[in-house]
Write a structure and sequence with these properties.
Blueprint (H helix, E strand, L loop, with lengths): L13 H13 L8 E7 L5 E7 L2 E3 L2 E7 L3 H8 L2 E8 L4 E11 L2 H10 L2 H9 L10 H14 L10 E15 L7 E8 L2 E7 L2
Antiparallel strand pairs: 1-2, 1-5, 3-4, 4-7, 5-6, 6-7, 7-8, 8-9
Helix pairs in contact: 4-5
């Protein structure tokens, strides 16, 4: 299926192809190659998109982290399906991911939280994400409060903060070409594995 699509090589596994593309992006001096646009849909049917950071990927899914009381989390509680896009302009490549989203295990969330800079750990406690602030100083006051709370001790992960995993059932790879004759290879999950289709640009 892919022999006439030079942008994709001979990959039959979308996760292997993604890993190859992601590593190319990581070595191409992008400011943030893991930036991913995540789109969710709330209970009112309105879509909402924002940038998050992709923190791990593989057959188990695509993992990002956030506050479980944020707008995106509330959307996912109402509708567990989401889509995401990674765009690497210098490479003229994008990857589109669609699937159901699950809460990551405590183990995954704890392991990642422990690797964050201390300031980011305190920030996770301090920020009531997506809520209205009366004044910005309210946030800095909360930071000081939690800095005092933890003192010189290790900062534990708050129960309201952690990971989500997008379990994909559709992954599309897009390679830009001249004259808008772009290459698009879609992997769609079926009962017997991943089906590949070449899509018109």
């Amino acid at each position: 299926m892919t022999e006439h699509l030079p942008g994709f090589g001979e990959r039959d596994d979308p996760f292997e192809l993604f890993a190859e593309w992601f590593e190319t992006a990581r070595s191409s001096e992008f400011i943030e190659p893991s930036a991913m646009t995540l789109c969710t849909v709330g209970s009112n049917g309105r879509p909402s998109a924002r940038q998050v950071l992709l923190k791990s990927h593989g057959p188990e899914g695509f993992v990002f982290f956030t506050n479980y009381e944020s707008r995106k989390a509330k959307d996912l509680n109402a509708n567990s399906f989401a889509s995401a896009v990674l765009w690497w302009d210098r490479l003229h490549r994008q990857v589109r991911i669609e699937g159901q989203v699950q809460v990551a295990s405590d183990e995954i969330s704890n392991q990642y939280f422990a690797t964050r800079p201390r300031g980011s750990q305190i920030g996770a406690w301090a920020s009531p994400q997506s809520q209205v602030l009366d004044r910005f100083d309210e946030l800095t006051d909360r930071v000081q409060k939690f800095e005092a709370k933890f003192g010189g001790e290790a900062v534990s992960r708050p129960s309201f903060w952690g990971g989500y995993v997008i379990i994909p059932d559709c992954i599309e790879f897009w390679q830009g070409r001249r004259d808008r004759l772009h290459e698009r290879l879609q992997f769609k999950l079926e009962s017997n594995g991943w089906r590949q289709d070449v899509l018109a640009p």
